Amino acid sequence: MSDRLLVYRPSGKWSAKQDIGHLADLDDLDEKRLHDFLAGAPVLSVADLTNRATESADHNQLPISALLERLSIGRRELVRKLDALSEADVGRTALQPPTETTHAPIGLGGVRSRPR
Question: What is the separation of C-alpha 30 from the centre of its chain, rounded to a whole number of angstroms?
Fold first, then answer.
């Protein structure tokens, strides 16, 4: 796919590169929230709803290969950590602000897996 298409912003929304970069930017939040679960926190760390990291990162200037590699490394690391959780850890829940919905660690990063 051409870089011209990867940086195209339909109707002012994020480009494909920005979307991929945003998913990688969420690695820090996933890490914080995994720590929250393991510490028994009743409420998870709050996401930056302004998406400051993505808005200021200038992902469109990076090669798509670098963005995909960063996303891949972050997701592999998250899956490795989730895979190492005990059955008790997998069963932990906490409220996710601002929706106040209950979540479990297995939902971090959009990852879906089975408990051992």
Answer: 5
Domain with 63 in it: what CATH number?
1.20.120.450
> Are the C-beta atoms of 101 and 95 separated by less than 8 Å?
yes
Q: Do strands 101-103 and 94-96 pair parallel, antiparallel, or not at all (unpaired)?
A: antiparallel
**What DSSP designation does 33 have?**
H
pLDDT, tens digit, 9 for 90 and up, residues 61-113: 999 999 999 999 999 999 999 999 999 999 999 999 988 899 999 888 765 44
Please tell me the distance from the alpha carbon of residue 35 to that of residue 3, in angstroms, as a whole number: 37
Are the beta carbons of 115 and 106 closer than 8 angstroms? yes
Segment (H or E) for 96: strand 94-96
Q: How many domains does the chain have?
A: 1
Say what the pTM is: 0.86
Show the tokens assigned to 72. 């891949």
